[in-house]
Amino acid sequence: MEHLNELFIEAGTLMLAGMVFVFAFLGLLVIFINAVLAKLAIRYPDAKPQTKSPRAAKASTNSAGSVSPSVVAAISSAVSQYRSKHN
Amino acid sequence: MEHLNELFIEAGTLMLAGMVFVFAFLGLLVIFINAVLAKLAIRYPDAKPQTKSPRAAKASTNSAGSVSPSVVAAISSAVSQYRSKHN
Amino acid sequence: MEHLNELFIEAGTLMLAGMVFVFAFLGLLVIFINAVLAKLAIRYPDAKPQTKSPRAAKASTNSAGSVSPSVVAAISSAVSQYRSKHN
Amino acid sequence: MEALHTLWLSTGLANFEAGQVVMMLVGCGLLYLAIARNFEPLLLLPMGFGAILTNIPVAGFSEVGGLLHYIYYAGIDTGIFPLIIFMGVGAMTDFGALIANPKMLFLGAAAQFGIFATLFGAIALNAVPGIEFTLKDASAIAIIGGADGPTAIFLASKLAPELLGAIAVAAYSYMALVPIIQPPIMRALTSVDERKIEMAQLRHVTKIEKIIFPLGVLLMTIFFLPSATPLVGMFCLGNLMRESGVVDRLSTTAQNELINITTIFLGLGVGSKLSSHAFLNVETLGILGLGAVAFSIGTASGVLMAKFMNKVSKDPINPLIGAAGVSAVPMAARVANKVGLEANPHNFLLMHAMGPNVAGVLGSAVAAGILLALVG
Amino acid sequence: MEALHTLWLSTGLANFEAGQVVMMLVGCGLLYLAIARNFEPLLLLPMGFGAILTNIPVAGFSEVGGLLHYIYYAGIDTGIFPLIIFMGVGAMTDFGALIANPKMLFLGAAAQFGIFATLFGAIALNAVPGIEFTLKDASAIAIIGGADGPTAIFLASKLAPELLGAIAVAAYSYMALVPIIQPPIMRALTSVDERKIEMAQLRHVTKIEKIIFPLGVLLMTIFFLPSATPLVGMFCLGNLMRESGVVDRLSTTAQNELINITTIFLGLGVGSKLSSHAFLNVETLGILGLGAVAFSIGTASGVLMAKFMNKVSKDPINPLIGAAGVSAVPMAARVANKVGLEANPHNFLLMHAMGPNVAGVLGSAVAAGILLALVG
Amino acid sequence: MEALHTLWLSTGLANFEAGQVVMMLVGCGLLYLAIARNFEPLLLLPMGFGAILTNIPVAGFSEVGGLLHYIYYAGIDTGIFPLIIFMGVGAMTDFGALIANPKMLFLGAAAQFGIFATLFGAIALNAVPGIEFTLKDASAIAIIGGADGPTAIFLASKLAPELLGAIAVAAYSYMALVPIIQPPIMRALTSVDERKIEMAQLRHVTKIEKIIFPLGVLLMTIFFLPSATPLVGMFCLGNLMRESGVVDRLSTTAQNELINITTIFLGLGVGSKLSSHAFLNVETLGILGLGAVAFSIGTASGVLMAKFMNKVSKDPINPLIGAAGVSAVPMAARVANKVGLEANPHNFLLMHAMGPNVAGVLGSAVAAGILLALVG
Ligand code: NA
Ligand code: NA
Ligand code: NA
After folding, report:
1. What is the reported pTM?
2. Dihedral, CA of residue F47, residue F49, residue F53 and residue F54, to nearest 10
3. What interface predicted TM-score (ipTM) does this complex get?
4. What residues sit around ligand 1, an ion, with C-beta below 5 angstroms?
């Protein structure tokens, strides 16, 4: 029991110190973002956005490499148009 | 020779034991498939097949990521149509 | 200084031996190409080139797997055509 | 005849111990959760399989010369596998939502109370006869509340390797259970009106911010908590590879093939620690119980912190996103979104919940560093 | 001048031994087979290259500190590389055809007679002066008849590492020669009418069957033959990753990048065992001869078993598919298909031959386990 | 309170040494070059990051048990990582332009004078107080002039591991600076008329030539310079995998995932050698200075050799392509093309410059082999 009490005190200290530290650390990070990054964002804005029109981007293949249903539909329609002309 | 005879006997025993075991093992597997899997198949049939229409699936890119010739042809035709309209 | 002089002599020898060797080695390689490869090229010419037409190849996706802008444009045009017909 | 007898003596049937049978069933259970219930299958499938393999009698998978032995000592005992996974996770993480709304970091901080409260709880469990957790054990168990797999495995491999199997099982199981554990707590602690709160749209975050952010995080970790730098450092390396835009081929490999290869072996190696003597005891029950407590406390403290912040902040904050602070990326954020939609069908909280969600990853890595520094 | 002399003494020309030259020619021969004849190039190309590298005088590729030394001891001596390959092969294997027609397993069993008959033959070769094969050597040689590369390398690395090079060369060469070795045997043992037999269409196999199958195979191996569990276990892990459908990214990586990377190093490492003292002796000739015998006997016993089963079974069985029981996936199945088409141009046996084909993989893994258990 | 004090004592702030701070700034500088200036980012980004990590106080990344320690000793001390990279580079290299015009090999040879002249210069630097380069050190430094990263890392890890960090920094920085260092030298040594020279179109190179070429190169290296066979051998293996056309999946993996994975760890491992005591001394200044000299001399000797060859050859040779002989593939070839276009807007030298460019890779691997043989 003696031993357990000691452990409890250690655990409690850990809990307190840990939470204080976590809040302090992430709080500092908040300050860092507000103080440094926000200023950087103003001073070095992004270059003008990529010229790809949103419509073209939407129609292109998505990031996972799979093709969106509407593109598949468009291609299959194009394929059938092509076939009806060439066969 | 003495030694060789002994080895022969060991090899023969191995051959016999090995073939018996292989047949027993794979035979048990036959029973397992007939007794367990076949029943599972009846009890848990596959969900209804994927809804993707065969035409759309055929027209989409194939699994290796390359594009089928007919799609390429369709796209190149679409490209030339597009160019003739926009240039 | 004594020691440095020795090192200099070693370095100079290395420089000389190294350059001689590099030239000898790559020179032999020149001979190898002229003597062996050029003859092989005559004796075993390449099989006839692949049949893919240049136009189809040009229109297909490029090696990095991304889609060229003109293809994207064509597809987006096809998509809008498709939509105007089906909606 | 003799050969057949030798063969019989070499069979599993002739050598099974009860504990091994039970642990194989545990392995099968993990496979079931992975395949039939889709519980974190990427780790639980190889882990369940590893649990089966390590308990095969005679085969010696986890003895010197065995496959799992090599995998465990090369990849997990050294900490290399969880760090590579963390690099890959870093390369997959977009900090945009957090940078746009940095206050969300406080939610990620609050949710770590789940960890430290559980540490206390684990020590309290020593009152139960048969359970004897040291501070190191308790710390390794508590990190389950961080809801971050690689962090839990890394810390457990350093502080309590003999508990690694149970801790990993608990961590990944509860992460998969997030959609079941969290919503009741979230609903209990919030009013319908609070759940309806819509949040302001996030500002645009520039490329330079995203590049400097991981460096800033690393710098702060170096200054204040070097023991967390292996985890935070590899995470930031992955994120920097992603955001810098100059090493896309490395970033892609880190997010795909490298993390996939490592995941297979990490799962097998963790599974190899699921031996009967390490798992079949009352301590495992304690760990599983404490894990559930940790998740619940973490969720609750995140929600309560968000409620408090909603009161003091000028911008409205929906308390539901506080629950995402436990990390479990991106599941917890999706849960917040889903519970929000129930109250207000036009309220999409997903992007807002991504902020506390990734903050939770940082928060639990920091918590792991603190535990390493203080009890390691 | 002195430098040039030192340089000369360090050249290969000043240090060549005859055996090294011959082994380099052997390496070039393997490259020729791989590149010009397309003989199992994925393994024979790196293996032939490894054979050249390991025989370079002075360079010390296979001595302590040399690249091939590290590769061999880290990947082959430990068994890790063949096991990773086997996992990848498992992820590539579809057991559907076998589950639909489980009797095919008997064909895979029968074809293993090639292994055990060869074991007997290897012992008989001890009558030849200069050849002295122990039972371990004989077992490692006999496994060539299994027509399965990783299994042969795994078993040889455990039972007879000094014969590994010759065994791997024989195994992969004969696997590439399957289209030449098998057809005459198949034609000799079957009548035209038998070769014309058409088989009933296979039933549909459900997802759940495919998921449970690898687990069932593993379970039986655990019960009856734990010594085979490294091979069978990794194979089943790969197959489970494939069929479960929940870890596609792991399955894809196991089938592609991971197996590719491992194949490069496995080939180099096996090639490093092609040193003159280990290869240039009469035993190698014996191994090459026995390998051919093993393949032939395996093919014949598969075909004869199929003939027998055709007699006793109510469903017709084309005896040609028995030849596919030696494994050599998918080449042996294609050979059965091709020989079948010669007799009956409308008879496509490919799917039917896939059953015995994958059964042969299991059969030879089981045979390897028996040999490990009894002579290992 | 005690816990907070323990925590403070474990912070970086309480343990920093000045040298570590400076080296972290060096690491940040490398990151800046990689990200903002696009200087060889694939290596400099992980390397800069590794430099930061290795200098974190308390964390012990490069001590026994630390991540970078494992990476360095497993991958760089053994030479495995640079050799894998070299295999991948071989799989990416097309020797067509060189086979079509083999004389270009002399340009690749001439440019290696940069290496050997620098060796002499490094010894001369011993006259500066505080600098003491052995012949091994000087050789490892001189190889910077080879403009080939993996070669430099491989040689430095064998001859002067304590200088590895500085040498790698110098090698990659100057490779990135090729577009700035080379043009003035090229313009100074050539007349406008020479720069306008158009070259004859290259002949078609057949598949068989491309397959035999790497084998011929390997054979000659075996005969005359076995010490270069690790580098040349792995390079030729990669190239053979590429050109043989029978192992495309291995070639693709070697060019992509395998080289990417290795690059990440190579960069981290090299960065781990950027500790203050190894980097912050006057010798590093000497290395940086000598590197610039090496590149300049290599460029100059390539151009001068090309001028000479243009005089004696019947086919015209544009002297600019001599500068591509330093390797730095494909940057140096692009520079030659660009400078050529300035003088003659219709003169595309790129394909012609690829010949000396890849010849330079072989040349510096040969030079590395000579140095290993004579001073290693
Ligand atoms: Na967390
Ligand atoms: Na087989
Ligand atoms: Na070079």
Report:
1. 0.90
2. 20
3. 0.88
4. D 146-148, 327, 360, 364
